[in-house]
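User:
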Amino acid sequence: MSSSNGSFHLESPAFADGAMIPAIHSADGLDLSPPLRWSGAPLHTQSFSLIVEDPDAPGGTWVHWVLFNIPGEVHGLPAGLDRSPELANGARHGGCWGVDQCHRIGYQGPEPPPGQAHRYVFALTALDAALDLAPAVTPGELREAMRGHELATAQLTGLYARE
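Assistant: Predicted structure:
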């Protein structure tokens, strides 16, 4: 159910690593973010960032979710997370739903073209600081701000296909 970097593990009770993502978490269903949980974060973790990408999209890697400043004491996210710019726990959504330009915030589930299954890579990074960024930042801006603060990354890959 999980993928890891050392002892840092990311998993979902909704799907196993390398398995199909249930339709409820896709644009074909209710488009609810899947529940996630993690363990083994490195000592001194102050926050987490999450980037979900489809590297198999025809136009280039497509970003489906950007969430950052998840507090370091948090060890999971519920299904159907609110899409507001800032969550009650201080986490913030970045821009997503695109390759070069990301115009939406919050989780945007799989919606690949018909055919072969696409991979959806959930990458959770433990950081040694919270990031001074406003909601709706681009994935590139988030990655730049994360440089030098990354402690470890755990990944979980789900698959999704449409007929």
